[in-house]
Amino acid sequence: MKFRDFVAGASFRAGPREVGEAEIIEFARRYDAQPFHIDPQAAAATRWGGLIASGWMTCAIAMELAVGSLLAGSESIGSPGVEKLRWERPVRGGDRLTLTVDVLDTRISSAGSTGIVRWRWALYNQRGERVLSMRATSFFDVGGSASSE
Amino acid sequence: MKFRDFVAGASFRAGPREVGEAEIIEFARRYDAQPFHIDPQAAAATRWGGLIASGWMTCAIAMELAVGSLLAGSESIGSPGVEKLRWERPVRGGDRLTLTVDVLDTRISSAGSTGIVRWRWALYNQRGERVLSMRATSFFDVGGSASSE
User: Fold this and answer.
1) Residue A4 belongs to what H/E stretch?
2) How far is Cα A53 from Cα A19, in angstroms, rounded to an integer?
3) Are B37 and B52 in contact (CB under 8 A)?
């Protein structure tokens, strides 16, 4: 898709994408090696009652779904940040996650070279429960051959 | 460390941790396969002028540094979310990142079983430039054998 396709009120959906327990452990061993992310037995003794995914892996999966759908072929050039990131429910092995994206507003930078989209991203599991939400800002390089910025 | 060690005004530091270009590409191929994260030649033609890390990998590295230091041996049980997540500057292969954490405030849940810490996390590169910042909330299981929550 392209920046011009993102208009206020538009909604997009991607997935589902299954999460494997092996992937949960692999990611967490490297980046978030807390017992409830890497050790099923230790996790069972916590209030989570079993292994759950690192929240940063859940964010990465949301990104994967966006990159494979609405950002594919776009002028995307990254993001300055995110507001109100919420891990609303745990993600477990075998869950199938679906991304929904709702465009809030868009504009072009004063220099004319950057398209700016604010949108709400959310991930839902196979039971329709929201597990992740955030309000993200994304930048798109729409300046063509302009080089003076 | 333990929840009781986190008091308003306390500061912690961890790292540095070097980021490899191979790791940048490996992470992004799986979760954020945009050209400026996975293809050095294509990245050089963007406004970034070269390969940069996925912002979600940068967050994961902040978590890695926290888990290896202030969260190690703690009662950490996860996080409900993050405010004002900002990717302030690009992270590139060879960068050495240092985490700073400043405790804003702490409290115990009304049920008495959860310690709640709000703190500001930031990553700086080897030039002292801030590349990431966020205000995170973390939960700690301080309820002992209480089971009625």
Assistant:
1) none
2) 9
3) yes
- Give mean pLDDT, residues B21-49: 97
- Chain B residues within an 8 Å CB radius of A61: 31
Residue with tokens 């999460």: A19
Burial of A10 (0-12, 13-18, 19+ CB in 10 A): middle
Q: CB contact, 8 Å: A85 with chain B?
A: yes
Min Cα separation A9/chain B (Å): 24
pLDDT of residue B149: 42
- The whole-angstrom separation of Cα B79 and Cα B77 is 7
Q: Is B50 on the interface with A (CB under 8 A)?
A: no
Whether the upstream peptide bond of residue B16 has omega within 30° of 0, thus cis, is yes
| A130 bridge partner residues | A124
pTM recorded for the entire structure:
0.95
Q: Report ipTM for this prediction.
A: 0.95
Alpha carbon B119 to chain centroid, angstroms? 11
* Strand pairing category for B11-18 and B96-108: antiparallel
